[in-house]
Amino acid sequence: MTPQGKLDLDPEAVRTARRLAARAAEPVIRMARTHTTVSVERALLRLAGLSGADDGGRPWANHLADAVRDQVGLEHGVALPVWDALNTGPHGSLAGLARAAAAGRVRFRLPTGTDAAHATAAATAAARAGITRIDRRRAERDALLRRLPTGDAADPPRPLVYLIVATGDIYEDIPQAQAAAREGADVVAVIRSTGQSLLDFVPEGATREGYAGTYATQENFRLMRAALDEVSHELGRYVRLTNYASGLCMPEIATLAGLERLDMMLNDCMYGIIFRDINPRRTFIDQRFSRQIHARAGIVINTGEDNYLTTADAVDAAHTVVVSQLLNERFGHEAGLTDAQLGLGHAFEIDPSVPESFRLELAHAQLVRELFPGAPLKYMPPTKHMTGNIFAGYLLDAFFNLAGVLTGQSIILIGMMTEGIHTPWLSDRDLALENVRYVRDACGRLAEDFVPRPGGFIAERARRVLAESVDLLARIGDEGLLTAIADGTFGVTRRPPDGGKGLDGVVARADGYVNPAIEILDTEDPHAARAHEEEVPA
Amino acid sequence: MSGPGTSGAAATGTVPGAPAQPADTRQVIRPYGDTTGDGMVQMSFTLPVPAGPRADAAALQLAGKMGLDPASVVHSKPMGPDFTFFIVYGKVGHLIDYASIPAPEGRAYPLLSAQEVNRAIRRALNRRLVVVGACIGTDAHTVGIDAILNVKGFAGEKGLEYYREIHVVNMGAQVTVEELVERAKAEDADAVLVSQVVTQRNAHLHNTKQMAAAFHAEYPTAVAAGIGRPLLIAGGPRFDTVTPEDLGVDRIFGKGTTPAEVAGYLVHALLPGEDA
Prior knowledge:
The complex is a heterodimer.
Chain A (H helix, E strand, L loop, with lengths): L10 H23 L1 E3 H10 L12 H13 L6 H10 L5 H9 L10 H35 L12 E6 L4 H14 L3 E4 L27 H18 L4 E5 L5 H10 L4 E3 L4 H6 L3 H18 L2 E3 L3 H6 L6 H17 L7 E2 L1 E3 L9 H15 L6 E3 L9 H17 L4 E3 L12 H18 L13 H23 L1 H6 L19 E3 L7 H8 L5 H7 L3
Parallel strand pairs in A: 2-3, 2-10, 3-4, 4-5, 5-6, 6-7, 8-9, 9-10
Antiparallel strand pairs in A: 1-11
Helix pairs in contact in A: 1-11, 1-13, 1-17, 2-3, 2-6, 2-9, 3-5, 4-6, 6-20, 7-8, 9-11, 13-17, 14-15, 14-17, 15-16
Chain B lengths: L7 H5 L15 E2 L10 E8 L5 H13 L2 E12 L3 E10 L3 E2 L16 H12 L3 E7 L7 H7 L16 E5 L6 H11 L3 E5 L7 H16 L5 E2 L2 E2 L1 E5 L8 H4 L3 E3 L5 H12 L6
Parallel strand pairs in B: 6-7, 6-8, 8-11, 9-10, 11-12
Antiparallel strand pairs in B: 1-5, 2-4, 3-4
């Protein structure tokens, strides 16, 4: 990896920053551990194998969870009422039960005594089966990565090239994704349809229509993963697949991603709150469960700090990026993610007309690299200052690529000179990859020679951003993270804890709350999965 | 608008054999490479054929059909086995009479930066401007209203929530007209935005008319938009056959509208004199 300590950061300041981030995160984590949401409960049903939807497209998981909520409430979880109904009724399967519940033909109750014990045992077996499937998919990925190695495992490691497809039609996305892989993409991200993050259900089946993107569904995940497996074998290099967990259905989408062997997921601790006006509490509760599932599935999360810089000024707000990264790291670690699963985001978004903008970019990128040496950092190209002048944009993208090489970034999203004009053409992608290849090959191991002068502009700028981050974290710790979000600390917008979408899906857990998925995820080491798989029969 | 070097006499003088034009009011222009009147243009495109001399010939033929004569392929590059990318330069013979091109009417109001919008609101209102938005009727597609209102925005522009001096209430989808009127009154809204994206049998027109009528009935003493009642704005891709008067609203925004256009219009319509 990159040689450390080029900036001579004060180790005490770094420790303080982490301690303050942990303090700010603590009350939120406590809240997440004592609450559940409709989507957490539906995720258990999906883990247990419930899929499909009615003729109107409303998923059976929603029907079943809603029926339980309406009859007995969700504060004890769906597990007891649902598996009690399965144990005692004529429904046979979860799908049968969900259909009957949707038709109003099921009376749910909260079982007690032996009935409760039986329901818990049955629910635990169902959750265990789902977790075992996720473990298998992870083992499958590990085996494929051994057989079809990727650039990040090379010596020296090469950054992963991350490309986007977004047609709205999964059957158009597939050939485009395969073409992108052949052109050099190591990671293919399928952009989601605009507004999916605000749906309180996961659409079903293969979809052919979307707005500026393709719906995230289990079937779309499966189809795309299979297509990329095919091209991975053809190329002798495993091509990773990325989608988006963020939104109102984080727990369910994370579960589906684990079941279908996605490799990376966009999962930010505050993106939905700030940019989509999703209720803060809903977000943090959903997020914890989704990240526990990602940890178990071996999925690398991508966080969304780049978005703050598209809203606020990239120089003035540089420290908010670091603060958010430290919070994402803390929430991630608490949910069981390793450093190697923390694809913390940042971006090259300083106004190119600012004097010494490139020096400032290098300072920010190197600071993030040194703060998170074990994290596969995701570096995002310029978008805000791409003006439609494709020639100037191509130059800016080259400087972005140069900054990425100099500061040892891990996942490089490829900048398109036509950013903001249209979704990338074949030729846009080809030119963008030519840009990356030139910079990478021309620079070689230039990062070794990039040693900012001690006490110079870059080192001082990095130190200042870190100091501002520590100040802000101290303030957040004093007033509380939810208050800071309500005050507009991140991305300018104010988001009160009782505002936003999805609050009505938040429920405090009662004594006797049962959710065997959470039980497994809270008590087991998510990374001992392979050993575990052998103990548990299929 | 006319600059030096584009006068009719100078331009036509470079066209051999052009007839003399007594009292010529034309202002003929052609693309400019490095010499007035050389007509040079550059373009790039992809053809779905393997690279090679035959592909180059195809590119030249396309350039010819597009009116480039002579044309030259200065760069051709294979993109995978099935596609070739070209950069072509060539001379176009087309003439444009600039004098005959009317200046487009343009927006009746200027686009303002977020700072200018905020400043105008602070100066004129001394409080935040209140915008209530919703998708009314059965339309569940919040993509339009969210593009305008959510911070995330649209086309690289941040939504109205991003403006510090605008208080946004986004009611989401499937809101009834009654709920919308009630909320607009409770919030003392300066403007109401409704979005209609996916509709059947002109339901978008019906819904919007019904909404406008409800507001007009609720504020019977209103003098004008912003004076006694909120400004009423409809948005969506299928309003291009009707006028605001037909629907009873103050403004219609079509496909591709960006948040800044809406913000500029709010200042123009609600804060007279602040959009200069």
